[in-house]
Amino acid sequence: MDILLDPLFRIPFFVGLFVSIVLPAAGTLLRLREEWLAALGLAHLAGASGLVGLAANVPAVLGAPLGAVVGALIKAFGNFRGNTVYALMILAGWAITLLVASNSSLGSVMGHALFEGQLYFAGMVHLSAAICLVVLAALVLPRCMSKLIRARLQPTFEIANAVPAWRWHLSFDLLAALGIAVGAGTLGLMGAFALAFVPPWVAFRAARTWRQCLWISIGVGLLSYTAAFVVALLFDQPFGPVLVATLLVFGGLILAAGTRIRVFE
Amino acid sequence: MSLPILQVDQLQAGYETPVVGPLSFHVNQGDVIGIAGPNGTGKSTLLKAVANGVHIFAGEIRKRADLNVAWMDQHPVQLPEMPFSGWEYLRFTEADRAPPEFLARWLDQRVDALSGGQYQLLCLWSVLGGHADLLLLDEPTNNLDQHSARVIEDTLKADQGSRAVLVVSHERGFLERVAHRVLEVDS
């Protein structure tokens, strides 16, 4: 148990904790927009550009955002709706990742690390990126959330009043892209995707109100992350797969408990 | 006399080709104008043209510069999952006028647990309960029972104050009861 209190793991723990607040919250809005595949598409692009960065000795947490931001801009200005553009991002990111991994000296090791997650190697650069992400989320989400929700519930409002809605749609797209990128560069590609996908999936089914939905989503993300951090350290397991498994187990348990409660009501 | 809030002149609007027009009319503050006509004559397209939703082929639509428009489509958005209570739905759509008592009773429920008629009424109130200057209502009585339709009728017949309403319906009697004048649209 002493390993859990080792100062060596303090920075990695807080990096993951900050990402685990932002990704479930952003994922909740992505799910509302039926763009949950965005998380996987952006994660693949982030992974590809993170790997290209690593090959050039740039930390993945700095290289990854570039690809994700390019993805968000393509989506915003290409006037794409729905998940098609994200499926294309997955394919492009996958192809680039494997090609770079195959053609660079440490490529396959780095590619493997990106898929598994490098959380325990997180340092001050990663912590700074995670803090920036939380600050950005704290600025963007309160300003944009109600507008994004209205755009989903009542899209006629923006059309009928010729509202310059691109500002908040793009702001959120960029926040989601950066969140996924920082997540992919620390928790791993699938870990970042799972944090943006599983908690909102559970919350959408369990919540009675939007406020509950947000809290359940963030709560499931934080709880799963903390449990995964402890389990992966104690049993010396790769962090990414442990996080994904923990999210699935917690998600399944919460939904099963919810079903039992409804049955007995 | 104040200027119209909406002036439509020789309008022809549609998609690949014109569906409606040429049409001319104007809307003043407080007006409730019904739009009637057989199926396929472009009643909904006319509302969409006012709401920037279709292509204008000829003519023009002039709106007051600061005009705030609320548009309820014939088929309001119904998402596969909607983790919102009815109260939250009205808050997010900025409908802050007190809803009718029988609607308020359902508003603690999740929106996707409402029946088709209840959801239609909620969407309708999200437009009627707001502060837009011009309301565009497309078949507002779809799926509504007699009591709910009567409440909507009473709301539209009441003084609209500084706002105006353009309402499309295939129910002629409803239009004649709520509208100050009825605009006939035909092919």
Key traits:
heterodimer; A: mainly alpha; ABC transporter involved in vitamin B12 uptake, BtuC; 81% helix; B: 187 residues; alpha/beta; Rossmann fold; three-stranded antiparallel sheet; 6 helices; 27% helix; globular
Describe the 3D structure.
The complex is a heterodimer of chains A (265) and B (187). Chain A is mainly α and 265 residues long. Chain A has helices at residues 10-32, 37-55, 60-77, 84-102, 107-116, 124-153, 156-160, 166-186, 189-206, 210-234, 239-264. In chain A, α2 (37-55) crosses α8 and α9 (189-206) runs parallel beside α11 (239-264). In chain A, 49% of the residues are buried. The mean pLDDT of chain A is 85. Chain B has one domain: Rossmann fold. Chain B has 6 helices and 8 strands, in the order βββαββαααβαβαβ. In chain B, the strands form 2 sheets. A 5-stranded parallel beta sheet of chain B has the order 5-6-7-3-8, sandwiched between helices. Chain B has a 3-stranded antiparallel beta sheet with strand order 2-1-4, with helices on one face. In chain B, β6, α5 (146-157) and β7 form a beta-alpha-beta unit. Chain B is globular, with a radius of gyration of 16 Å. Classes of the chains: A mainly alpha (265), B alpha/beta (187). Chain A binds chain B through residues 31-32, 34, 146, 149-150, 152-157, 159-162, 203-205, 207-213, and chain B through 50-53, 68-73, 76-77, 79-85, 88-89, 92-94, 110, 126, 136.
Please report the total strand number of chain B as a whole number: 8
Shape of chain A: globular
N-C termini distance of chain B: 34 Å
CATH topology of chain B: Rossmann fold
Multimerization status: heterodimer
Alpha-carbon distance between the two ends of chain A: 41 Å
Average pLDDT reading of chain B: 88
Write the H/E string of chain B, N to C: EEEHEEHHHEHEHE
